[in-house]
Amino acid sequence: MMPAGTYPSLDTLGTCAGRSSDLRPKPSPCEILFGALCRFLLLALLVTFSTGAFSAVSSASQPRHVTLIVCPGLTYDTLYAHFSTRDLPFDMAEGLLSPGNARKPDPVANLYATLYAGDTANTKNPNRTLLMRLITAADPPGRVMVVPSATVDEAGLIARSGMQQGDLVILCGLPPVNPRTHEWNRLPVALIGDNSHYWGHKTLTSDTTQTAGLVALRDIAPTALSYAGIAIPGTMSGHVIAGELSPDSNDSLLYGMDRLAHLNQLVLLPSMWAWGGISLVALLTSLWSLSKGITLRPALQRYLLRVMAGTPLALMLAAIPVPANAWSYGLTILGVALLLGAIPRMDALMTLTAAAIAVDGLTGSPMVSRSALSGYWISGIRFYGIGNEYMGILLGGALVSAYAAAKRWPEGIRSPKGAALLGLWFALVLFVLSYPAFGAKAGGAVTAMAAFAPAWFALVRGQRIDWRICAMSAVAGFALVFVWAALASLTGGRSTHIQAAAAHASHGDIGYIWHIAVRKAKMAFLTATVPGVIATYIGLVPVWFLWRKTALKDRVREFLSTDPALAAVMRAAAAGSIAALLFNDSGFVPFVLIFAALCWTLLHEMLGRADQRGHLNP
Known about the structure:
The structure is a single chain. This protein has helices spanning 29-50, 76-82, 107-117, 130-136, 152-164, 220-227, 250-292, 298-318, 326-340, 346-362, 366-370, 376-379, 388-408, 416-434, 442-461, 467-491, 497-506, 512-528, 531-549, 552-561, 564-583, 588-613, and strands at 66-72, 93-98, 144-147, 168-174, 189-193, 203-205, 214-216, 242-244. By secondary structure, the protein is α/β, with parallel strands linked by helices. It has a six-stranded mixed beta sheet with strand order 3-1-4-5-2-7, with helices on both faces. Helix 7 packs antiparallel against helix 8 (298-318), helix 8 (298-318) packs antiparallel against helix 22 and helix 15 packs across helix 16. It is elongated. The protein starts with 28 loop residues before the first helix and ends in a 5-residue tail after the last helix.
């Protein structure tokens, strides 16, 4: 066993390696929807569990020898600083490696635990050497050699020797620890090659990240096992690494990713604290004005609200060119947010933001993944698709756009054409969030359906939103998850957790889905206790005081009574927020952001009326 925080010497090698009668009352829309959902869910379940496409994780058909070399401190900069010609001394595919969250008290020991477990591991159990146990138990032994710690020079010599012998060589870097924060702020390097030249001039990718040039630390173990012909256990959440040709050269692709990942780590906390602080000031100032029934520069207050609402889009746009440094990056984010705040209508700004996120999702989420608000690449929270942060903004923005349409064309939204267009807009957002090719986000499917179905029924049919339609909408979201899993299985698309659970259950492993659920529950708890979230709790105290102790509640109710469309989408947003909290890991984030989008809109509309009439009464 390796003591926490220590590295074995180079000589320490692990070897082996889913026709009623006319006399009966006509069913309500809710009853029709519920019946269709039940049939839909039953069909999806039958397809999901009857198809033969759910097979166990396959190993390489031709077992081969594998040399796995771990090189602490190997990053993009140190790799090419060592090889001054900027050419590797051996023909290997290159990629960057997401190490995951740095966990105290010993993040380095956790790196090794994650590497050897093929899954995110806990520092309390740093010697979880599942990989080594599987290698030792292999028959015949000797197919995998592990070098736990090597310098760049040593790694080069061992890699050349292994490739000359015909081995698959995996060179895995580990990131240096930031001495101030004890976390990672760089992406290490991963290299894979053999003597066939198959891997040359390619970039690494895996189904974990689904991002060219990026793989995860937990992908290393299943990759070594697969090529050695050793069965991959269900507890390993990583995927086998592959090489693919990239339209960009490795230099430009990896340099941009490495630099942007580092800068995102530098600007993330300052920009989030600034955004949260200014948002709280704008929110409290607006609420105080409304509670007192006075006008306090409503035009300026409305502008600040639009700047806050435009910040997520500004974070996406500012990262399109790779910033020169952290200061220029921060100033670019601020400048773009100030420009977006100049858009005079909140509903237009929120619709623009939602449309940008949706279109970005359809193209692989290149802007969302680069945004500092996402911060995916180093931590590995979510590598691809739309994560919880932008999911909250997207759902809130989609609801605000529905409100804008209902307010400006109240009769048109109730027409068949208007109802169909609204349904298509909601369906597009739902598709981008939940379809496996774009994100496979099961919690996003449930959350979106729980928000959109009540909003559609309220705006189009004038139906009151109650707990029954909210519950049936959530059930519809779950049904959709099974449908996507069945379609992905039949078409050979990207796998989902439902597919993986079915595959493992068919081989007697029923603990996979429990393993996933426990991990997500832990993530939700950790997210709910980080300093930024705790600061949000504290910031809500004066909001609660103004709501309970002043005339604010009555003024909001009076205003909403004159604007039934806004009242309807706010109820739908409340349903979606609760679903986000219940069915998503880190659910507090979309819970806040979905409702924040509607609160920004509500305050903006109320202050707009005050700006026009000179008073705050409806």
